[in-house]
Protein 1
Amino acid sequence: MLWKKSYLVVAVCIATCISIMTLSYLQRTKLFSISIPAAKFCSGIPARNTITPLKGNRTFIIAPYFDNRKNKMTRVISIVHHTEVKELYCWFCHPSKGEIYISKAEINVHSDRFDFPYAATDLECLEPEDWEPRYVSIHWSPTGDIDQLPLFEIRNRDPESSLVDFTVCISAMFGEYNNVLQFVQSMEMYKILGVDRVVIYKNSCSPLMEKVLDFYVAEGTVEIIPWPIDSYLSVSSYWHHSMDPKDIGYYGQITALNDCVYRNMYKSSYVLLNDMDEIILPGKYKDWKTMMQNLQGQHPGTGVFLFENHIFPKTVFTPSYRFNTSSWNAVPGVNILQHVLREPDRKNIVNPRKMIVDPKKVIQTSVHSVLQADGVSIYIPMDVALVYHCRTPLQENISRHLLIKDTTLWRYSVPLIGNVSQVLQQISWNGEGYR
Ligand SMILES: *[C@@H]1O[C@H](CO)[C@@H](O)[C@H](O)[C@H]1NC(C)=O
Ligand SMILES: *[C@@H]1O[C@H](CO)[C@@H](O)[C@H](O)[C@H]1NC(C)=O
Ligand SMILES: *[C@@H]1O[C@H](CO)[C@@H](O)[C@H](O)[C@H]1NC(C)=O
Ligand SMILES: CC(=O)N[C@H]1CO[C@H](CO)[C@@H](O)[C@@H]1O
């Protein structure tokens, strides 16, 4: 009897040990796979929108990207509630092999959350070692019915060979945006400086702006990514939660920027992360290509180039403005050529920076710096280039004679005026004027 009892104890012990070992194995590798009937493979609901909510509205998937720079994994750019989402799984399905491979996601909420409850997040899932998944579903549990889950195509699986030099990412156009003249001027400046493509995450704009965007899309310069973030979350127009306590900061700008970097990782040698009222303006070189060849030559291994932001107040006009741009008078928006006086540096305040990055070296980006990268970041002195930023003043009461005249922009006045006039003419011909 006694002997039998100890036998039982040993058996229970062994069983416990095995399950603990199995559990710890699963936890350590965060991986396991299951086989389910063939009819169900890859039969989820194909995701068609830029932003896909998961059940419960606490996780929003933007897009999964293949990333084998460190491990063989899928990185899912997403937005999650930073405390309420504790567990997520990637379901990789093989269309013919008879396998669903489930991998526990590491939920990596970006540190630049600025106190908002929702933030840009990377869901990092190790992929199966012996096959290349093309589709993935994301679910809060390792069990469930794949038919009911949204199914995402994994991007960057087959990097495209058509490489361009420069892509500008505009992270969020919102608030019925109607600063048409400044937008067209920015676009034409980007083109003069060497842009190949401009990617715009568009939340909302005016009907006239819509016409302008249609023009640039038809021309092949602009790619629009719909960004209806306010259909799912309350959005702040400010960068910090304390300024406007909503769900997420600045229309989800940081998430859009990260998506843009990954989207263009194998399409563009460089990605510029700036707003549409900003132009990275070289002082020493005629265009971005010459500038980046020189900078990259001087700083091999650098992945992130940081340019100082300088404010050219749109409220202060330049008295010596002598260009005849009367044909633009009916166009709503700011004429940047009239604003070449910049605010001086402020004591004890560091000018924020905007960036040109080699997207292949970036892992996580924020707005004014990258959070994680493979290469180093360097500051570019303002005589080489600065960010020309025409907007409402930061130093509104400063006396005019303290503003610094900086006419670098005027070097481009001849092609800029010609090209802008041409675009505006075409846009007004296509419709009923600037309305
Ligand atoms: C998200 O919330 C809305 C309304 O609050 C609801 O109609 C919708 O079904 C939810 N979506 C998901 C995927 O849970
Ligand atoms: C400016 O150009 C317009 C044509 O675009 C012309 O009609 C006008 O006379 C010019 N104004 C001056 C001051 O040269
Ligand atoms: C500028 O001056 C006005 C009126 O004197 C004042 O209300 C405002 O706060 C000042 N702005 C700044 C940025 O100091
Ligand atoms: C895109 C475009 O029209 N660019 C033109 C801008 O203006 C310069 C000179 O005025 C032309 O050479 C470009 O072709």
Protein 2
Amino acid sequence: MNQHARLDAVPIPFIDVAAQRQRLGGRIDAAVARVLEHCQFILGPEVRELEGALAGFCGARHAVTCASGTDALLMVLMAKGIGPGDAVICPSFTFCATAEVVARVGATPVFADIDAATFNIAANSAARAIAAARQAGLNPRMIVAVDLFGLPADFAAINALAAAEKLFVLDDAAQAFGGMVGNRRLGTLADATATSFFPAKPLGCYGDGGAVFTDDDDMRDLLLSLRSHGEGADRYDNVRIGLTARLDTIQAAVLIEKLKVFPEEIAERDRIARRYSQQLSDVVKVPTVPNGMTSVWAQYTIRVKPGRRAAFAAALKAQGIPTAIYYPKPLHRQEAYRYFPADPAGLPVCDLVAEEVISLPMHAYLDDVTQDRIIAAVRRAVGG
Ligand SMILES: *Cc1c(COP(=O)(O)O)cnc(C)c1O
């Protein structure tokens, strides 16, 4: 076997967390060592420092960190007092946590369809879902707009709909922190924004983590209380039912270092995504980025013809190239969620794209040689 053939057989990681660790290792090790030195593992100084840096990065007035992206969503619902009898409009083509938190507080998720080009919630379907919720005797309170795969949702349309219907807009930016509309970062485009620092997200820590962004001072105070058992004046003054949902100081220390290189990583992800699109758009359906938007490319997701996807994935796997399917089943088809209401016109786009989507390896450390190997394999797999 010659050198080239052996290189070709080496499996490629889907997301290369180790490559980033190699770049930042010393700095992160030192940051973690400082926490091990001062021993303030819960709400140590790094947590406040990170919150300042995150808020500054995205331009929001407040950042409140927490234990996961799911807790970030949950805390906003709790802060708004969402509960039984309330309806929250969610896209069906998303990670389950988007709707899970709604059901968890006893409210009803009502599913809306997505736009075929962007995979994000379609305002016209959301409007039908709101009407259907009212007809069913529910009280629509909120729309959750998910920035799927790192691409900002259509906030112009969603915020207009929410304003007309007097609803709160929660941005589920778990996959999209750093994404932009014009020169505004996510974190400022909805009434509140939740994100996740799960390791595989564009800005990930070394465990679970999340944050909420808001410009509302009262919301910030509520979030701070909710993440620490509903505390009031101090830890042993309990004024509401809360959670234990703080971000560990060690994770904050990791994120402070990672945030420093994040802008460069976003630019690199975008360069890699453009390269994919340039070299694949003639053989597969490549992602669409509306004018003026910047995606952080949590996933680079193409579409292949229904029925061809399994063979396509197998052909890539045989060449050492992993793929992933986000998501094989929209939430309204899931056992846990199929009994909740949906846009009465149906969710045909969610159903269709769930059959077609497949994501290629994407991370900021994907070098050109490796990417060329992926591109060539994709072209071979589709016979292009
Ligand atoms: C990852 C994700 C979440 C949940 O984040 P965790 O940190 O894993 O709890 C919520 N919504 C979406 C769209 C996600 O992709």
